[in-house]
Every structure is written in structure tokens, then in C-alpha cells.
Design goal:
This protein is mainly alpha-helical and 84 residues long. 76% of the residues lie in helices and 0% in strands. The protein has one domain. The protein has three helices and no strands. α1 packs across α2 (36-55), α1 runs antiparallel to α3 and α2 packs across α3 (67-83). The model has no long low-confidence stretch (mean pLDDT 92).
């Protein structure tokens, strides 16, 4: 792959990781917030989180949900594999 393509893919992955963090923090602070932009962000973030929750139910405990952390770790591993 060319350096620009690798850089673009890594930038997109980094942006998606920040999007996950932003959506999770906003949902922790104001869970009932109904904003069209936030709903679009949730539409991008929640499907992979739902997939992780279905395939790995042990990441969700009684009060804690570690699926965003699992997704961020997976994206970091993917980015490291691309950079090699």
C-alpha cells in the first residue's frame, strides 16, 4: 500500500475511535439527549457495539459495559497491523 493510503486509513480509524469516545461520554452525561447529529453518530457507533455485545456477552456486567473498550482495542490492533 502506498503511504498516503495507509495514512488515510489510520486517520479514519483514529477519527472513529474519537467518535466512539465522544458518543459514550455524551451518553453517560446526558443519556436522553436527542440531537440529529448525535443520532447520526450513534448510528455509526452502536451497530459494532451491538455486535460485540451479542458475540461476547461477558463484556457486559451488571452495571458496566466494556464493549466500547473492546472495540477501541480492536481498532488499535487493526491500525498497528496496517502500519506494519
Amino acid at each position: 500500500m502506498t503511504a498516503t493510503l495507509v495514512s488515510l486509513i489510520c486517520s479514519i480509524i483514529t477519527l472513529y475511535i474519537w467518535l466512539i469516545i465522544i458518543v459514550i461520554i455524551i451518553d453517560m452525561v446526558k443519556p436522553g439527549l436527542n440531537n440529529p447529529i448525535l443520532n447520526a453518530f450513534r448510528g455509526l457507533v452502536y451497530p459494532p457495539l451491538r455486535f460485540i455485545r451479542e458475540k461476547m456477552p461477558f463484556v457486559v456486567t451488571d452495571t458496566l459495559d466494556f464493549s466500547p473498550l473492546v472495540l477501541i482495542f480492536a481498532l488499535e490492533i487493526l491500525m498497528n497491523l496496517i502500519l506494519r
